[in-house]
Predict the 3D structure of the following.
Amino acid sequence: MNKRKIISNIALLTAALVWGFAFVSQEQAAKYVDSFTVNALRSLVATVALLPLILFRAKKSSVPVLEKNKKDRRLMFTSGIMCGTLLCISSNLQQFGISLYPDDAAISARSGFITALYVVLVPICGAIFKRKVSFTVWISVVVATIGLYLLCGSSGLSGIYLGDLVVLCCALSFSFQILCVDHFIDRVDSVKLSAIQFLTCGILSLVLMFIFERPSIESIILSARYILYLGVVSSAVGYTLQIIGQKYSDNPTVASILMSLESVFAALGGWLLLNKSLSFVEILGCIVMFAAIVLAQLPIKSNKKA
């Protein structure tokens, strides 16, 4: 394995690690502040954290922070606002779902694996826009459904939490957000797009926070360390590692599989940091769901010899 591949794999694996452990921070932050407050502060912190990177890249490459061409500048802000609006919906559904779980549930593990179903849902949602869906993806949907049943419904309706259903909606919403990013990513600067979508998400969540929530300064201070992790490490650093990893990767399938390990690290984080374990059937459900995630990302080679 050459140096570029090693750098790529380490970067993507580290991104999956910080994203996975972010579910623990989300779970803990939910004890102090409500969903809109978490995402408003998290997204605004992420925006500020990305600014030095944007300025550094602009200085290094002698490219202006904002595009000089009015059309390019309009496209940048339009794409960022659209992606940010979908990110706002997705991240708030996720945080709201996490807050609905009972305290004794393996929250990080369940929400992490259910969220990761976006990998399966993205190509299916893409079919709405006439994107071809492979046979393996349809198989992965069946496998994911079985895994979801083992994780959430094997003990009957009593084993299904309202949080599971809301996080499942979040996975669907993330699918459209990913498709939106995919539509614009080749036409605009990726780091600037990320910063604008975080800013949009932060502003929208802030407005919703003032309308529906009444966070106190004390509660925000108590949740500060978790929000800082979510904003700086999970969002800004994690996204930067993803850029580095995908830049040096020559195999998008391997890259996607490494990033989908986020769900495994979410379960591991809940076990290590919060001492929350899964039952054997729930672990089996996680394994089956992860198999579906990997299956959805495997390419099909049309060449019979290959």
Notes: The first helix runs from residue 3 to 29. The CA atoms of residues 76 and 189 lie 8 Å apart. Residues 302-306 have pLDDT under 50 and may be disordered.
